[in-house]
UniProtKB/TrEMBL annotation, chain A:
GO cellular component entries: plasma membrane protein complex
Protein name: ABC transporter permease
Family listed: Belongs to the ABC-4 integral membrane protein family. LolC/E subfamily.
Cytoplasm keyword on record: no
Location in the cell: Cell membrane
Bilayer-spanning residue ranges: 20-38, 267-287, 318-341, 361-386, 435-455, 652-676, 703-730, 750-771
Automatic annotation (TrEMBL), chain B:
GO MF term set: ATP binding; ATP hydrolysis activity; transmembrane transporter activity
GO CC term (a single one): plasma membrane
ABC transporter domain: residues covered: 8-237
InterPro entries documented for this protein: AAA+_ATPase, ABC_transporter-like_ATP-bd, ABC_transporter-like_CS, ABC_transpr_LolD-like, MacB-like_ATP-bd, P-loop_NTPase
Name of protein: ABC transporter
Keywords: ATP-binding, Cell inner membrane, Cell membrane, Membrane, Nucleotide-binding, Translocase, Transport
Taxonomic source organism: Mesorhizobium helmanticense
Similarity annotation: Belongs to the ABC transporter superfamily. Macrolide exporter (TC 3.A.1.122) family.
Length: 788, 237
């Protein structure tokens, strides 16, 4: 025999189906966002770890001028070193018929045996080069895709000044080029950067490296002390022009990946957790009121002799069913979105395999939080009613001490229609309930803002970084320092409107035992194409002596303005010098070390040379302009802002937009759920009173005004409060999540506030319409037969 | 008082709730005339159809078939808006459970109706009629049941209704308070010439009526004029 109370659970669920569904959707939205985001983040971490493990990503990296292969054995003898992989790596230029843009790259030697021991290649397409054919090469898959290069095609590479054709036989992924980038380019540009893996023999020939190497990869043995190993490697390689060994944290691709993952962590873990937390709270509010609205039924059950425990259990079953329904919908939808969103990561995160994960603990955790929040709410609501004597509970709730609002009587005696007095007394008379409903509506707003915020943040970053800081349309890099003549030559090219040069040098900063590998940029004091700005976007002048540091670097090296720091130049003169930190800057994008170009030239013991030029140009003349630039001597590579934007929109933009759209979409769903439920429950609680008003002759409009004006007041308070809470939460998250190369600014555009507010208002209007419909259908006769 | 021409005319009123197995016939082919200023008591056991009849007369419910008309207002087939207007302008209700608005004071509950009526008396006058002027500033929860019901009467009459419909007005009250409420209703009937219909299953109240209608099984089974009316104070039960 089925328990009659269980039949009641089923009937209640059915009779309240719209409300049940809206609560379930609220749960579903929270669960979906949480499950999707966490599983995506895990997918990224898992894919990175698998790639690093399978392709044996090195722990230590070092470059040098030239060292005989015999040094490899000495490297192996260093205490703490595991495997050593010597190789030849050189910057190269690539020439393509279909573009005048200079394309830069890196050519890396492959052992005759095929796979290297470390930083192995994951072949995406094609085959390994034939050891007997030195002209066969593998190129990185990102470039191959961006430029549509197929196996069998020839790639024209300028090796050590000589143009040489190689035949592409395969494309591959490498853990050291998940993000292929070079100094001076803030973000990866797959179209203009290529990695070529060529045979040892070809490389040795081209670069005079027979029996020698200029780059080494190493692993750490278990229990090694990394700092000690780095120092030993540096000491050993110093006579060979070693440029300083560094670990993964300074490896450009890994550093960039780490920052990207930190950003994803914000988008995928922090925000969704806050989101889910708020959803759980809203569930608590909504379920609490839903159960309280059954006051009469609870009282009757008590009067009939049911124990409080039995009654509580009954409601636990009811809300658990709703929470589980929501969780199930959330899991299915979340999983579905996860697969789609992970798909969008592929263009950006170059991993051999990237698949949405779904860990069982995640499902259990999500369901437990939902069921827990719902039951907690049900328990407290049942408890509040159960402590009353049944007879008291059967009467409608005693109106609160109304005499405290005597000023309302004064106002009421004037011309305010009494339905507004009823609304006002209800709002003031039940402050806790009013507050909870208001907070509930208010908290739905941050959920919408969380998603919209990302659009604003990205727009802002683009505007600031590429509209106000990097003001040039393009820049070119040179293979070696060039004199001021190059600048005049560049300015003379038709179509170039303005041009400036910079000196960019790889360096290591050392302060005490801490070190940070980066590059220093020497700017001319009158620079207009690169304008450094503080967090309020005010231009910052480059200090006339000493250096200026990004706050992120200063923090890592524990430096403040006025401190001295050691600069180790990693090329040319290899100067080591103490300089003073003159200023700490709050960069938005990237972590930089900036000084006067003349100061950097002095440090390098060189003349007034530069190796980067940035310029503005007339797009109408770009064809001719780029062909002229390409023919300039010593040009290494280029980056064009417009192309870069397009790339950005395809990759980071696309990825964040999908995540943000999903987040704001679910936020809206929750907002609608909360507003609708507040309205619906308010109506349920007041049906008797509203029907009485209808009977004595008030029109539907007048009766609706009672309940709608209550909601309007709550909305008027909740919307600004919600916008403020949203802003505060985003600021909190943004400041807590500032990473090394990204400090996502807490900027929220007015349009985002407006959209969030309008969506809630829209949800409210939809709820009002439902309320009007319900009021039209109020059963006036039934109301007369019962007291409540 | 001499009975005048009928203001209410109902013919063949039938009300059926539900369908199939759950079909319940609440009213069967009822004909009824009520004259201006008449005080009618409807008597009958539970389920006899008296509340259904009253609800149809008050514009709260629609018959399944038959016609009901008040003066030139056709109540059958009227839209919800027309019925709302009818209730608002012409009908005063008093119910067993008072149906006062808990968040409004006594005076405000009365004024609530006064503000939507075209020719109301002042709330103070209405409260005076039911003897509750001294309770004007209190909330319903601060009043006794009898006082609350008298507020309901005041609220019903403040608009100077043409019809006063009372459904078990003393059902929740003891004898003494019940008499006070009945006296208020009788006073309104007498002084304002308001057509009044009172539902009760308490036959003692029938003595106050001009005419008593007995209902059973959805039909008017007996109609008795009452030439010797008693005062509310003399009603006992």
């Amino acid at each position: 025999m089925v328990n009659v109370l269980d039949i009641k659970v089923a009937r209640d669920l059915w009779s309240m189906r719209l409300q049940v569904l809206s609560i379930a959707l609220l749960v579903a939205a929270g669960v979906a966002v949480f499950v999707m985001s966490v599983s995506n983040y895990q997918a990224l971490i898992g894919a990175m770890e698998a790639h690093y493990r399978n392709e044996r990503f090195a722990d230590i990296f070092v470059g040098m001028t030239r060292a005989p292969l015999s040094v490899v054995d000495r490297l192996r003898e260093i205490d703490g070193i595991g495997i050593v992989e010597p190789r030849v790596a050189e910057p190269v230029r690539v020439i393509r018929e279909d573009t005048n843009l200079p394309i830069s790259g890196r050519v890396i030697s492959l052992p005759a045996a095929g796979q290297p021991l470390l930083n192995r290649l994951h072949l995406v397409q094609g085959r390994w080069p034939d050891p007997l054919r030195p002209e066969e090469v593998i190129i990185n898959a990102a470039y191959a895709e961006a430029r549509a290069v197929r196996s069998g095609e020839t790639i024209e590479v300028v090796l050590n000044g000589r143009l040489q054709g190689f035949r592409v036989v395969g494309t591959a992924l490498s853990p050291e080029f998940i993000f292929a980038t070079r100094a001076a380019v803030p973000l990866p540009d797959d179209r203009n950067f290529v990695v070529v893996w060529a045979s040892e023999d070809a490389m040795a020939g081209a670069f005079d490296m027979k029996g020698a190497f200029n780059d080494a990869l190493m692993t750490l043995a278990p229990g090694a002390r990394p700092q000690h190993v780095l120092e030993e490697v540096d000491r050993l390689l110093a006579p060979y022009g070693g440029t300083g060994a560094y670990g993964r944290s300074d490896q450009p691709s890994h550093r960039f990946l780490k920052d990207e993952l930190a950003e994803q962590e914000t988008l995928s873990i922090v925000m969704p957790s806050v989101f889910f937390g708020i959803a759980a709270f809203l569930l608590n509010v909504v379920v609490g009121r839903m159960v309280e609205a059954q006051r009469g039924q609870i009282a009757s059950l008590k009067a009939l002799g049911f124990a409080n425990r039995t009654i509580a259990l009954h409601y636990f079953k009811l809300v658990t069913a709703i929470a589980l329904l929501g969780s199930a919908i959330g899991l299915v939808v979340g999983r579905w979105f996860a697969i789609g969103v992970v798909g969008s990561y592929g263009a950006f995160f170059r991993f051999p395999s990237l698949e949405a994960q779904l860990e069982p603990w995640l499902l259990v955790a999500a369901a437990l939080v939902s069921v827990g929040a719902a039951n907690l709410a049900a328990a407290s609501a049942v408890y509040r009613i159960a402590i009353l004597a049944p007879a008291e509970a059967m009467r409608p709730e005693t109106p609160p001490a109304l005499h405290t609002f005597s000023w309302l009587q004064t106002i009421g005696s004037q011309r305010i229609p009494l339905q507004y007095i009823i609304a006002a007394r209800t709002i003031l008379g039940r402050p806790v309930r009013t507050l909870l409903t208001t907070v509930g509506i208010a908290l739905a707003i941050p959920l919408i803002l969380f998603g919209l915020y990302w659009f604003d943040a990205i727009d802002y970053m683009i505007d600031v970084s590429f509209g106000r800081i990097e003001r040039g349309d393009a820049f070119v890099t040179f293979t070696e320092p060039v004199s001021a003549d190059a600048l005049y030559e560049l300015r003379a090219i038709p179509g170039v409107l303005e041009a400036e040069v910079q000196r960019v040098v790889p360096i290591t900063l050392r302060a005490g035992h801490r070190a940070y590998r980066t590059s220093a940029t020497g700017l001319d004091s009158a620079s207009e194409l690169k304008v450094l700005r503080d967090s309020a976007l005010r231009p910052i002048a480059v200090p006339s002596d000493g250096i200026m540091l990004s706050r992120t670097i200063a923090r890592q090296l524990d430096l403040k303005a006025g401190d001295s720091v050691t600069i180790e130049v990693l090329e040319g003169s290899r100067t080591v010098r103490e300089v003073t930190v003159r200023r700490i800057s709050d960069d938005i994008l990237g972590a930089s070390v900036t000084l006067q170009r003349t100061a950097l030239n002095r440090l390098m013991r060189e003349g007034p040379v530069a190796n980067v030029a940035t310029f503005r140009f007339d797009p109408g003349q770009s064809e001719l302009l780029w062909s002229r630039i390409r023919s300039m001597p010593k040009i290494e590579g280029s980056s064009v802002k417009a192309l870069w934007f397009a790339l950005f929109n395809e990759t980071i933009g696309g990825m964040v937009v999908i995540g943000a759209l999903v987040l704001s979409g679910f936020g809206m769903l929750i907002a609608i759920g909360v507003v609708y439920n507040s309205a619906r429950i308010a109506l349920q609680e007041r049906a008797w009173e509203l029907a009485s008003l209808r009977i004595i002759g008030l029109t539907r409009r007048e009766v609706s005004a009672v309940i709608i004006s209550e909601l309007v007041v709550e909305l008027i308070v909740a919307i600004p409060a919600g916008l403020l809470i949203g802003r505060y939460l985003i600021e909190l998250i943004a400041s807590a999540r500032a990473s090394e190369s990204f400090q996502i600014p807490a900027v929220i555009d007015r349009s985002s506030y407006a959209i969030a507010a309008l969506l809630v208002i829209g949800a409210a209007i939809a709820s009002f319409i439902t309320i009007r419909r319900r009021i039209e259908k109020l059963d006036l006769v039934a109301v007369l037969k019962t007291r409540d | 008082m001499q009975p005048q021409a009928p203001v209410f005319v109902a013919r063949g009123l039938t009300k059926v709730y539900g369908s199939g197995d759950s079909r319940v016939v609440a009213l069967k082919d009822v004909d009824l005339d009520i004259r201006q200023g008449e005080f009618i008591v409807l008597l009958g056991p539970s389920g006899s159809g008296k509340s259904t009849l009253l609800n149809i007369l008050g514009g709260l419910d629609a018959p399944t078939s038959g016609t009901a008309r008040w003066r030139d207002h056709e109540l059958t087939g009227a839209s919800d808006e027309q019925l709302t207007t009818y209730r608002r302008e012409h009908v005063g209700f008093v119910f067993q459970f008072y149906n006062l608005i808990p968040s409004l004071t006594v005076e405000e509950n009365v004024r609530l109706v006064a503000q939507i009526a075209s020719n109301p008396m002042t709330p103070a006058e209405a409260l005076e009629l039911v003897g509750l002027s001294h309770r004007a500033g209190h909330f319903p929860s601060q009043l006794s049941g009898g006082e609350q019901q008298r507020v309901a009467v005041a609220r019903a009459i403040v608009k100077r209704p043409d019809i006063l419909l009372c459904d078990e007005p003393t059902g929740a009250l003891d004898v003494d308070t019940g008499r006070l409420v009945l006296a208020a209703i009788a006073k309104v009937n007498a002084e304002l010439n308001t057509t009044t219909a009172v539902i009760t299953h308490n036959s003692a109240i029938a003595g106050m009526a001009h005419r008593v209608l007995r209902l059973s099984g959805g039909r008017i089974v007996k109609e008795e004029p009452n030439p010797r009316r008693i005062r509310a104070e003399d009603v006992t039960w």
